[in-house]
Amino acid sequence: MVLVLTLVAVIMGGVLAYVNHLTEGPISEQKEKALANGIKTVMVCDELTVADPVEVKQDVDGKELVYIIYNVKDAQGKDLGAAVQSATMGFGGDLKVLVGFDPEGNILGYTLLEHAETPGLGAKADQWFQKGQKGDIIGKSPAEPLTVSKDGGQVDAITASTITSRAFLKAVNQAYTAYKATPADAASRATKQE
Q1: Are 39 and 84 in contact, with CB atoms under 8 Å apart?
Q2: Do residues 43 and 81 touch, judged by C-beta distance below 8 A?
Q3: Closest alpha carbon to 70 in 47, 88, 48
Q4: Cα distance between residue 178 and residue 59, in whole Å
C-alpha cells in the first residue's frame, strides 16, 4: 500500500512539474503583454517609447521594497513622465498597481496588475478610482499623500472595502515617492561627473 501511494505521488509530481514547465512561457508572455498594455493605458497614449526599466529600492515600514519605473516618451520624443509599478498588502493579499505620472507628478492613470481582493468588493478598485468615478484620483498629485476620507483625506473609499482602498492609495503614494526619488538621469543611465 505504501509503495503504491509513493508511486502515485511521484508520478503526479512529475506530471505537475511537466505541466508547469509547459505553461511557464505562455504565462510569462501574457504578463509581458498585460504590462505593455498597462503602460499604454496609464500613460494615456498609444504611440510611445518605453525606456529600459529602472529599479528603485526604498525602505518602507522596515521592509525594502522594489519599484520598477518605466520612463516614457511619445512618438516625437517628448517626455510623457513614467509608469511606476508598486505593490502593497491589501485585504486578501498582494495588490500590485501600475501608476502613470506626468513630468510634474500628477496621476495620468492606473491599472491593477494583480490582486487577491474580494470579488464584488475590493476588486472594484480597478474602476473605483478612475476619472469620473466616486474615488477619482486622476489628475491629482500625491505630493501630499492621498488618503481615504475616513482618515481625513480627500478620496472616497470603496463602499465596505476601506482596507483595500487604504492599501491601493498606499501603493499609489509609494509609487509617487519612488518616481520622485528617481535621479533625473535614470532614463539615460548616465552617471554624474565629479
Answers
A1: no
A2: yes
A3: 48
A4: 11
Cα–Cα dist 129/115, whole Å: 15
Whether the full predicted model's pTM is greater than 0.85, yes or no, is no
First to last CA, the chain: 73
DSSP reduced 3-state for 120: coil
The letter for the amino acid at 77 is G
pLDDT tens, position by position, for the chain (194 residues)?
999 999 999 999 999 999 999 999 999 898 888 888 889 989 988 888 888 888 888 777 777 888 899 999 888 888 899 999 998 887 777 888 899 999 999 999 998 887 766 676 666 788 889 998 989 999 999 999 999 999 998 898 888 778 888 988 999 999 999 998 876 544 443 433 33
Four-CA torsion 43, 159, 176, 34, nearest 10 degrees:
-40
Is there a contact between 91 and 122 (Cβ–Cβ < 8 Å)?
Answer: yes
Task: Say which DSSP state 42 is in.
Answer: H
